[in-house]
């Protein structure tokens, strides 16, 4: 009986391995950072080691597996310079680029608006996941094989959803062609220059090759709110609510009645902050 029990226990035991993950979210905006903050937290709590480049570090001592590289300086210089290049000049990222023998990453996760940073995945020879905090642009959807016609699926920068009327379809189509010109003749050549400037010593790669090597994109939006669209297997909507935390009960209220007024004072308020007149 003991041998049978021991055999069953050994049979049920599973060996689990934690991954080393490099996550890069460069945008100096709290809404971009908070969208996937719980993801980084939960990955670290489940035994993965997460190195996060962020402008809003949480500095939580209870998350020893979460190493945060603080790029809060980007808030001050966003309107003055290219934040991607400024962050790549910082010592912590220079170390990740030029001293890769010190690190080992099994996965690189990059915010979808900075695909040039997929070059880190080339350095560490690992898969890539893009995270889209507020949806993705039409070119990125198309790069991943998703149909993205401007009449059916307007770009995130166009304020139209659902079934469009003729005027909205016309505006969406004109914006599409303008945006595609900007993307392929201005934005992507500039991204290639960034790759050549910061990564040429460690890897020789073209931007189009980086795009073709994307494995998965996590899109932070819900089909219930945004509408249903055709998506390939590598584009995964994650609901648009992973940043939400469990609800907490409201503070207990102390009710005091008088002939002239009713004062409701929560526990976190001082008597001096309560109203003094009806």
TrEMBL record:
SUPFAM superfamilies: UDP-Glycosyltransferase/glycogen phosphorylase. InterPro entries: UDP-glycosyltransferase (IPR050271). The keyword Transferase applies. Residues 1-18 form the signal peptide. Keywords: Glycosyltransferase, Signal, Transferase. One of its GO terms (molecular function) is UDP-glycosyltransferase activity. Belongs to the UDP-glycosyltransferase family. PANTHER family: EG:EG0003.4 PROTEIN-RELATED (PTHR48043). This is Uncharacterized protein.
């Amino acid at each position: 009986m003991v041998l049978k029990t021991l055999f069953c226990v050994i049979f049920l035991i599973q060996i689990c391995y934690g991954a080393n993950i490099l996550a890069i979210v460069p945008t100096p905006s709290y809404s971009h950072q908070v969208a996937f903050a719980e993801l980084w937290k939960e990955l670290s709590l489940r035994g993965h080691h997460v190195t996060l480049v962020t402008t809003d570090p949480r500095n939580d001592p209870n998350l020893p597996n979460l190493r945060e590289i603080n790029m809060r300086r980007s808030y001050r210089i966003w309107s003055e310079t290219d934040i991607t290049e400024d962050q790549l000049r910082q010592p912590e990222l220079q170390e990740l680029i030029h001293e890769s023998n010190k690190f080992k990453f099994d996965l690189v996760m990059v915010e979808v608006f900075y695909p040039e940073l997929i070059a880190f995945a080339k350095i560490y020879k690992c898969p890539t996941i893009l995270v889209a905090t507020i949806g993705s642009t039409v070119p990125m959807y198309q790069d991943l094989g998703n149909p993205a016609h401007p009449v059916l699926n307007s770009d995130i920068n166009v304020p139209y959803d659902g079934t469009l009327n003729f005027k909205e379809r016309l505006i969406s189509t004109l914006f599409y062609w303008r945006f595609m010109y900007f993307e392929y003749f201005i934005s992507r050549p500039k991204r290639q220059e960034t790759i050549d400037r910061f990564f040429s010593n460690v890897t020789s790669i073209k931007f189009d090759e980086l795009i073709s090597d994307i494995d998965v994109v996590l899109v932070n939006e819900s089909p219930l709110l945004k509408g249903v669209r055709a998506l390939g297997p590598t584009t995964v909507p994650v609901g648009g609510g992973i940043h939400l935390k469990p609800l907490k009960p409201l503070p207990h209220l102390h009710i005091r009645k008088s002939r002239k007024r009713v004062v409701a004072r929560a526990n976190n308020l001082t008597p001096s902050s309560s109203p003094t007149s009806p």
